[in-house]
Design brief:
Length: about 300
């Protein structure tokens, strides 16, 4: 591991450990009487983030690597089954760490957000779609940006222009992006409350008078390209360059963090694997921000 990655891992471990000391209710539930886990929850989260940054898609391969290369940093490492079970129980903790790290960056106060969704493929064969335990949640959808059909889910993101994830959600491939955005805002009411007079830049599918009215009630101003038959809307000159921003953020998740190579076979497995990748991106931005790196979203220092 590089010195930079070692420093990031140490900083993340300390931050998560301090968070769990101040808010122990965030830790996964376990009986009061029993054997305490040898690998702490802070170590578990740090280990999972390192696997995402280093590009490991399979838990067995990652743990073999960790046993060989990271024994000094993690004196105890569980087997694959125990590691997977503990990760799936840590979803609430991972989401809390994402929010805490995001709030601890200079990007959190940005007054412009970009909103979009991107496909998360979960299978390709017809037999997989029939037999998968994701069937019923995962479904067939179409990605207009890449002109392709897929079977799986959609990751909905609201990010700052610097790529910091502010809100995120997983839905079926055919879910209405406008409704998902409203649901994300409603689920985290403190986020819009902390960002009055916020501007959201989105694609043309985020349309509708009722939709824009609901956003306005939350103090959000929507900028989007005009649809066919509409008059030109305010901020039209911004859409093309800022559209590239959200595509670049999606490419960071897909090209460097292998978003679609998650390997999840159950809803719980997919959720934690996707959220770990979002946490890995947030951690890199948080660390870059605190160490004065010029490009906050860069993963170059940590991906090898």
């Amino acid at each position: 591991m590089t010195t930079e990655l070692d420093t990031l891992a140490t900083a993340l471990y300390v931050r998560v450990d301090d968070l769990l000391k101040s808010a122990p209710e965030l830790a996964p539930w376990r009986p009061r009487v029993g054997i305490a886990p040898t690998l702490s929850d802070a170590e578990l989260v740090t280990l999972a983030v390192l696997s995402a940054l280093l590009g490991f898609h399979r838990e067995r391969r990652w743990l073999r690597y960790a046993h060989a290369e990271l024994h000094g940093m993690f004196p105890y490492l569980p087997q694959q089954s125990g590691y997977g079970k503990r990760l799936r129980k840590s979803v609430a903790l991972v989401m809390a760490v994402i929010r805490v790290l995001a709030c601890d960056t200079s990007l959190w106060s940005d007054d412009v957000w970009v909103a979009d969704s991107t496909p998360v493929e979960c299978g390709r064969s017809v037999e997989t779609a029939r037999r998968s335990r994701l069937a019923g949640w995962a479904e067939y959808g179409y990605c207009a940006s890449h002109s392709r059909y897929f079977w799986g889910l959609r990751l909905h993101l609201v990010c700052t222009l610097g790529g910091l994830p502010v809100l995120f959600a997983l839905s079926g491939a055919k879910a209405d992006e406008r409704q998902v955005l409203l649901d994300m805002l409603a689920t985290a009411p403190r986020v819009p409350a902390e960002h009055p007079d916020q501007t959201i830049i989105a694609d043309r599918q985020y349309y509708g008078r009722a939709f824009e009215r609901e956003l306005a009630e939350d103090g959000m101003r929507l900028l989007r390209p005009a649809r066919a038959g509409e008059a030109e809307r305010a901020g039209a000159h911004l859409f093309k360059p800022l559209r590239q921003v959200i595509e670049s953020i999606n490419q960071t998740l897909k090209g460097q963090l292998d978003l679609e190579r998650h390997g999840g076979r159950t809803p719980a497995g997919v959720i934690i694997r996707i959220f770990i990748k979002i946490l890995a991106l947030t951690t890199a931005i948080w660390h870059n921000d605190h160490t004065g790196q010029p490009i906050k979203r860069s993963l170059i220092l940590y991906d090898h």
